[in-house]
Amino acid sequence: MDHIQKHFDILAPEYDTWKKRNRYYYDAVKKVYGNLIPSGARVLEIGCGTGEILASLKPVFGVGIDVSGEMIKRAQQKYAQQKNLVFYHVDVATLAPSLQNGMTSGVFS
Q1: Rounded distance between C-alpha atoms, residue 28 and residue 55, angstroms
Q2: pLDDT confidence of residue 39
Q3: How confident is the model at residue 28 (pLDDT cuts 50, 70, 90)?
Q4: Among 42, 86, 91, 109, which has the minimal tally of Cβ within 10 Å of its Cβ?
Q5: Is 18 left (phi over 0), alpha (psi -120 to 50) or beta?
Q6: Which long-range contacts (CB under 8 A, 24 or more apart) does 60-63 make?
């Protein structure tokens, strides 16, 4: 897993720039998730990157996790004023047992 973390840590500084260049795709992704997950839900996004898709869902409470600490730093900076969003540098394998307790309305990756 360490090589994956390093890969995304290296990509993090330019990640949002690449997403803007491919905005049609990311807008379509946001639309699909927006149709599946209602506003006001409690949501966990696995592999949240810099948090843009999670934030677009307007959750009552949103948790974003990512294996890349650099991606999480950027998400925390971008959405520092949105108290309904929290971001954690976590490997999803460490969370798997706790995901069964009904803490969220929806989980996506």
Answers
A1: 15
A2: 92
A3: very high
A4: 109
A5: alpha
A6: 60/84, 62/86, 63/87, 63/88, 63/104
Q: Is the Cβ–Cβ distance between 54 and 45 less than 8 Å?
A: yes
**pLDDT, mean of residues 40-53:** 94
Asked if pLDDT for residue 73 goes beyond 80, the answer is yes
| DSSP states of 32-95 | HHHHHS-TT-EEEEET-TTSHHHHHT--SEEEEEES-HHHHHHHHHHTTT-TTEEEEE--HHHH
Beta pairing partners, 106: 43
Q: What are phi and psi of 10, to 5 degrees?
A: -70, -40
pLDDT-based confidence at residue 1 (cuts at 50, 70, 90):
low
Location of structure tokens 């006001």: 40
Structural domains in the chain? 2-108 (3.40.50.150)
